[in-house]
Amino acid sequence: MASRQKIGETTLRQLNTPHGVLTYQFTLKRVKNMNLRVLPDGTLRVSAGPRVPIREVERFLTSRSQWITEAVERAESRKRQAAAKDCLRLWGREIPLSVGIVDRDLPETLILTEEGAEMALWEDTPLRRQTQVLAFWKRETGDLFAARFRFWAGHFQEKYPVEAKKVGLAVKPMTSRWGSYSKRTGTIALSLYLASRPPEFLEYTIVHEFCHMLYLDHSPLFHALVEENLPGAGVIREKMKRFPIR
Ligand SMILES: [Zn+2]
Fold first, then answer.
1. Fewer beta carbons within 10 Å, N or C terminal of the chain?
2. By C-alpha distance, which of 242, 158, 140, 156 is closest to 206?
């Protein structure tokens, strides 16, 4: 048997509702009515006077459970978005990012430290953040893009009658696709945004583009060729579809 709650005391309670389990902070207050609030962080706070039986509180919460569940989900999704804004993505990892403002006689930078990533900006705007992130990826991942590209160029040159080693590489921020192959210019372009995703995305994209040297379309034969060279490619491809391009 739970001991009786005192005025001003807050307890954590749970309630089964048709819309799932609600977890809420319950405070007993010297008020007549019941109060219900969803805080910006998604916390559900309920208060009621000592004369309101807990069963009535629960009945009220159950009758509002759909609205409450939706409000909590909205708050939590806003919280996630705010947190996502302050992280640096690198090869599928999310590194905590702190942003500071510096004087204009100092350079704008983005560096990795033991705690995470630190960005120094003249002014905190999305464009300035973006510029630093792209420059960071270019600096930190350029060698890996080039090394993986050379590896696969060698692989395709050896295995198929194509001049894969003569293909040029361009790494740049692309907004509508992960990569492309131009037969005309003999160039494979890879999106710099691949640096934010798991390394297998880069691997898949390189193999995909080299396979276009043999098939220009996306026919079943093409996909079979990708799979043959990179076992598990189909699974990676499905996974990639669930991620935004940038
Ligand atoms: Zn393609």
1. N
2. 156
Q: How far is the CA of 217 from the centre of ligand 1 (A)?
A: 7
DSSP states along 218-244: --HHHHHHHHHHSTTHHHHHHHHHTS-
**Count of helices and strands (H, E) across the chain:** 6, 11
**For residue 160, how far is its CA from the centre of ligand 1 (angstroms)?**
18
Both 91 and 175 in a single domain?
Answer: no
Determine the distance separating the centroid of ligand 1 and the alpha carbon of 146, expressed in angstroms.
20
Q: In this structure, is residue 220 part of a structural domain? A: yes
User: Helix, strand, coil proportions of the chain in percent (round to 5)?
Assistant: 45, 25, 30
Supply the range of the domain harboring residue 76.
10-80
Residue 214: alpha-carbon gap to chain centroid: 34
Residue 3 falls inside a structural domain: no
Q: Encode the chain (246 residues) as per-residue pLDDT tens digits.
A: 445 788 888 999 999 999 889 999 999 998 888 899 998 888 999 999 988 888 999 999 999 999 999 998 888 887 777 665 689 999 999 999 999 999 999 999 999 998 899 999 999 999 999 999 999 999 999 999 999 999 999 999 999 999 999 999 999 999 999 999 999 999 999 999 999 999 999 999 999 999 999 999 999 999 999 999 999 999 999 999 988 887
**How remote is the CA of residue 198 from the centroid of ligand 1, in Å?**
19
Distance of CA 178 from the midpoint of ligand 1 (Å): 9
**What is the CA(10)–ligand 1 centre distance, in A?**
58
